[in-house]
Amino acid sequence: MILARGREQPAPAARFGCILFRRSASCVPAAVTMPDIRNKLLLLGVLLAVCSSRGIAAGQPATPLAQAIQRIIHRPVFRHATFGIEFYSLDTGRPIYELNPDELFTPASTTKLLTEGAALALLGPNYRFDTRVYRTGPIAASGALRGDLVLVGSGDPNLSQRIQPDGTLAFENDDHCYGGPAVPGDPLMVIEQLARQVARHGITRVDGQVLVDAGMFLEGARELGTGTVISPVVVNDNIIDVTAAPAAKLGVPVLLTVSPATAYAQFVNRATTGPAHSKPDIEWTDDVKGPEGTRIVTVTGNIPLGFAPALFPYAIPKPSRFAQMAFTEALREASVSVNDTEPVRPPNFKALVAWYRPENLVAEHLSPPLSQDVRITLKVSQNLHASLMPYILGAVLAHATRRADQAGFELESSFLRKAGLDLSGASQSDGAGGSRAAFFTPSFMVQYLVRLHHMKIFPYIFAGLPILGRDGTLADALKNSSAAGHIFAKTGTYDEYDEIDRDDMVTGKGLAGYLTTQEGQHLAFAIYANRVAIPGHGGLIEQIVGRALAQIAAAAYRSLSPQ
């Protein structure tokens, strides 16, 4: 979904314009009239506008790369679009191709490169999230806990089945938050492990309540890509996977499978099996709060006859209550008797903090290292994980609670400035790149990548970048190209539906990362295309714009010949 500058020089088109203007002004004969001058300047302005918008830059060598890029960006579908491109040689320390390098572009999820880089640099690649469960009273000889059981959220984004036996985190190239398949396994695996630890501490009954402390930072904001709720407690990426499959007959209700299935959400099935060539479309047309903080969700829409089962993610409105109910059910499965009623009044967690001491710890989950989560976030462009990072930075390092995200951005800003970057080429207001305030220049992004290349955290960022034609969000791009397997880059897509033309308006499409050319040259690059109208509403963004950006990068891999 969504980006030093270093060099105080204008874009190539601007340089071209200045040179032409000065020559025109100095070469005008004395007898030329003012209307003639005005006409010439008017014509010159038109030429400059065309050159700037279509990428024709004076002084840009007519290399095979430049010619290949021109052929791509001159396709009819891009006639109203604007491109920003920079390829930078890590070997020579200079740019070898630029197009509008100092103009601001909507970067979409390439923003995650900054967010995850700051997290790795400031927290360290070996940082681990520590999710703990405390008791707030003594344990009687009978096994009864004379108090509450409190699960304290740590901001861990992976309380899920992503965790593998070797400590790595698994992913599917098309993440379930976007409707792709879920990672195989039990999404409540970590919650159930915590419940079994509680039972092993000799607790058989909780006389108080099962609580979830989500006070690390304020819960409730929604990340701007999928609408998933940001919270210090994240179970199954704070979504419920609802898989819909067609029935055997037209008009019959579809078959719904819910994972994880808990008492938190009841799904009322009103969706039907539609004609074979209809469009699959599942919606939550009614989502109301039920008793005890549960949700009653009405499912409507259509799944075509003969269509493969499709996953539709339901964003959980109250992650802490969902986690509380899932933990309660897991405790019962572990033979611990508990009370599952929602508290009448919000618990006083500030008072309960006094119980958060080692002697009262009854369960604990230590996450895989942060470097593993960065890999997941970049590979699949996981919006919630990236959106969490400013909050986590602010809460852990600045000890902020109410405006933890702002505190996190201040820490990121300091990190970028210390790296020597000019932040006038950057604008960021969320961790994932969904904010309308997100803008980066290609030059800024490239210079950021150059500096990353020299940092200790670089191997972890590089390991997380999708690989062209191989995995992550680039798995299906140019699979048969000679460049497949050689381009490592973060993708980004930001689009809106155009009601007038009934098509997709791609506000921002980006690709930024690294490649080694066939000749062995090492490059950092950033490619942006903004304002591309995609005919129809059939999901052709990747086939048209994503493919074009990948082709530009592939052209650098094959035909780069710097002067």
Could you walk me through the main structural features you see in this protein, from its secondary elements to its overall organization?
The chain has 563 residues and is α+β, with helices and mostly antiparallel strands. It folds into three domains: 13-54; 64-122 and 374-559, DD-peptidase/beta-lactamase superfamily (Beta-lactamase, 3-Layer(aba) Sandwich), CATH 3.40.710; 128-368, D-tyrosyl-trna(Tyr) Deacylase, Chain: A (3-Layer(bba) Sandwich). The chain has helices at residues 12-26, 34-54, 64-73, 112-123, 189-200, 319-333, 349-352, 370-380, 383-397, 404-418, 442-453, 458-464, 541-559; strands spanning 82-89, 94-99, 130-135, 144-145, 149-152, 205-206, 210-213, 239-245, 255-259, 265-269, 272-274, 281-289, 295-304, 310-315, 361-366, 426-427, 439-440, 487-498, 503-516, 522-530, 532-534. Strands 1, 2, 18, 19, 20 and 21 form a six-stranded antiparallel β-sheet that branches. The chain is globular, with a radius of gyration of 27 Å. The two termini are 35 Å apart.
What is the averaged pLDDT score? 89
How much of the sequence lies in strands comes to 15-25%
The separation of the N and C termini measures 35 Å
CATH level-3 fold name of the largest domain: Beta-lactamase
Count of extended strands: 21
Q: Biggest sheet, in brief?
A: 6 strands, antiparallel
The number of domains is 3
- Quick one: CATH superfamily of the largest domain? DD-peptidase/beta-lactamase superfamily
Anisotropy-based shape: globular
